[in-house]
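2024-03-11 09:14:02 DEBUG pipeline.ingest accepted 1 chain
2024-03-11 09:14:02 DEBUG pipeline.ingest length=315
2024-03-11 09:14:03 DEBUG pipeline.predict start
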Amino acid sequence: MDVLSTLLSEVRADGAVFARNLLENPWALRFEDGSPLTLVVMLRGSGAVVLDDGAHRPLAEGDIAVVSGGHAFSLTDGSGDPGPARYVRGPGGTCTVEAGAASAPALASFGARTCGDAHNAPNIVLTGSYDVRSPSGLRLIGALPPVLVVPDEGDLCPVMELTVAEVERVQPGQQAVLNRLLDLLLISTLREWFAQCDEDAPGWYRALSDPLVGPVLRTLHDVPGETWTVSRLAEVAGVSRATLARRFAELVGETPMAYLTTWRLSLAADLLRTTDLTVDSIARQVGYQSGFGLSVAFKRVFGTRPSEVRRRTAA
């Protein structure tokens, strides 16, 4: 499995919240749900993602954006200053009228998970909020810019069509379906963005194409439980220890062993959350000789112990 696949495999929605807004011009939509990751799809019309720090990313019809960080942000018609937000999306997908919005109509409901101005509104925005709990997933999200945009290239997207249809209805077992649909949409979007991005890509992703560091990164992800040293990793790269250490730090931003430690502990945290394996067994699987060694490293890096992670998961 390649490095990106190992990280994307841990991106899993739990309690996905989809919302749809039908908007007349001019419009502004505020998001204050605190979600660490929000997928934004411009189904009809055009707009822009506006962060509170002033960052502005335009969206054309069919474009998909991913907003990360958990901070409040706005979607607007992209015309400059659309005025106060007409609607505010809060926790759980709630939709309320912003107090003081001059043109806000009485809140109208247009079916499941939808609110807006009119059925034939020229702008339709679909959003999906994501609660990320996996340390591997958080590691991936931490490498993303605050806003990334994948332009629409006109390709047929069956997953998107199915998602839109599912969001508009209510059926038994639907939450499980929405979870998986959001997984597919997010993974597809991120994979496309990584394939297109250049300077915005995280260091480890750019390093995958490096002839020296790339093989080392793939090896660490394939067999993290090996007894790795810088000397052994240098043999994988076919260079000296000093050359590998310098090149790795230059591209990835940390030493090979520091990267390996964080990756091992992320895997251990995922196993603590998703399996019943003992701490000792998990420790050996990710490259530690005992549960005690894993616990010490876990406490140093994450500020907590493996037993506490498992106890919180059980609760």
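2024-03-11 09:14:41 DEBUG pipeline.report The mean pLDDT is 84.
2024-03-11 09:14:41 DEBUG pipeline.predict end
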